[in-house]
Amino acid sequence: MVLAVRSAQLGRAKQIAGWLAATMTLGTVFLVIKGFEYHHKWVHHLIPGEGFHIAGTTDPAAQTFFVLYFCMTGLHALHMIVGLGLLAFLVPKALRGEFSAENHNWVEGVGLYWHFVDIIWIFLFPLLYLLGRHHA
Predict the structure, then answer these.
(1) For residue 106, what is the domain's CATH number?
(2) 104-130 average pLDDT score
(3) pTM metric for this prediction
(4) S-S: 8 plus which of 36, 72, 92, 104, CB 3.0-4.6 Å?
(5) What is the pLDDT of residue 136?
(6) Is the pLDDT of residue 59 over 90?
(7) SS3 per residue for the chain
(8) Which domain, by its residues, includes 85?
(9) Number of domains, the chain
C-alpha cells in the first residue's frame, strides 16, 4: 500500500492500480487463511458455547480466551473486508487516471486506513497467537 501511495504522489496511474491490486491480493490471502483457521476451530469444537470442548481442561478461562479471540480477529477481518472494498473502489479510478501528483488524497486516505488495520494486527498477533498458546 505504501508503494501505491508513493505511485499516486508521482502520478503513475498504472503503477497505482498494480500496487492496489497486489495489496488486495495479499489481504484476500490473509482472509482465506483466517477462514481455514476458523474452520479448524469449528471442526475441533473450539467455538464458545454449548459444544465447546478442549481435551484435558475444564477451565472456563479457555472458553473466555476463544470468545476474545473470535471477537478480536472477527472485528479485524471485518475491517479488512471494508479496506478491500475501499481498495476495489480505487482501482478503476486509478486505471482511469483520476489520481495525480496533485490529486492523490483518496489513495493516501485509504492507505492510512489500511495501515491502521495493519498496526492492530501487530498487537493482536502476539496477544492471541504467542501469549494465547501458553494459556489456552
Answers:
(1) 1.20.120.80
(2) 90
(3) 0.85
(4) 104
(5) 46
(6) no
(7) CHHHHHHHHCCCHHHHHHHHHHHHHHHHHHHHHHHHHHHHHHHCCCCCCCCCCECCECCHHHHHHHHHHHHHHHHHHHHHHHHHHHHHHHHHHHHCCCCCCCCCHHHHHHHHHHHHHHHHHHHHHHHHHHHHHHHC
(8) 2-135
(9) 1
